[in-house]
Amino acid sequence: MRSSRDGDERALEELLLRHYQRLRAFIRLRVDASTRRRESVSDITQSVCREVLRNADRFEYQGEAAFRSWLFTAALRKLGDRRDFHGAVKRDPGREVAVDAADGGADALAEVYRTSLDPAGAAQRTEWTELLEHAFDALSDREREALTLRSICELKYDAIGAEMDCAPESARKLVQRARVRLAGVMERLDGA
Predict the structure, then answer these.
(1) Global pTM value
(2) DSSP class per residue in the chain
(3) Which residue of 19, 25, 60, 89 pairs with 112 in a disulfide if CB–CB is 3.0 to 4.6 A?
(4) pLDDT tens sequence across 39-62
């Protein structure tokens, strides 16, 4: 960010590239099913990156964690905008096609998910990624939020507690319950 302000245009791009796969994984897990059917995660991710580049002068770099927080906050705003757009516009559901299937990048996303949420790993990357996303959809909003903040955003429990308006210990317990519930949902879906 400092280099970017000093005229090095590539510096911010390199910072974004360093966080791109984690941002993409965050967006895939946070996008609602309706938007996921209408837009590719890559398009949304690139749109967030464009906004961050365009608004870089509004951010004061205070380390990687602060940058990730800013980046993921921009992603949440974008997802809300896209959800509102699709909710406001009448669409013919019969014409909808799942665009993310051809989006590619399942290997990289599975790696982020696997290292963040399931260290033991899983069999097929694409199937596992889809299974995880469907299971994630089954969690409550609060469980998704806590798990995303811990596993994808890599926030500490005190920061999660501050973000979710609860004590750090409550945040830790919520993350643990969400992980157990996610594993149970994945097991049920995998057996179906």
Answers:
(1) 0.61
(2) -HHHHTT-HHHHHHHHHHHHHHHHHHHHHHS-HHHHHHS-HHHHHHHHHHHHHHTGGG-----HHHHHHHHHHHHHHHHHHHHHHHHHS---GGG---SGGGS--HHHHHHHHHHHH-TT--S-HHHHHHHHHHHHHHS-HHHHHHHIIIIIS---HHHHHHHHTS-HHHHHHHHHHHHHHHHHHHHHHHH-
(3) 25
(4) 888 899 999 999 988 888 787 778
Which amino acid makes up residue 84?
D
Task: In whole angstroms, give the CA distance from residue 6 to residue 17.
Answer: 19
d(CA 21, CA 112): 7
Which tokens belong to 116?
């963040």
CA distance 154 to 72: 11
38 and 91 Cβ atoms separated by less than 8 Å: yes
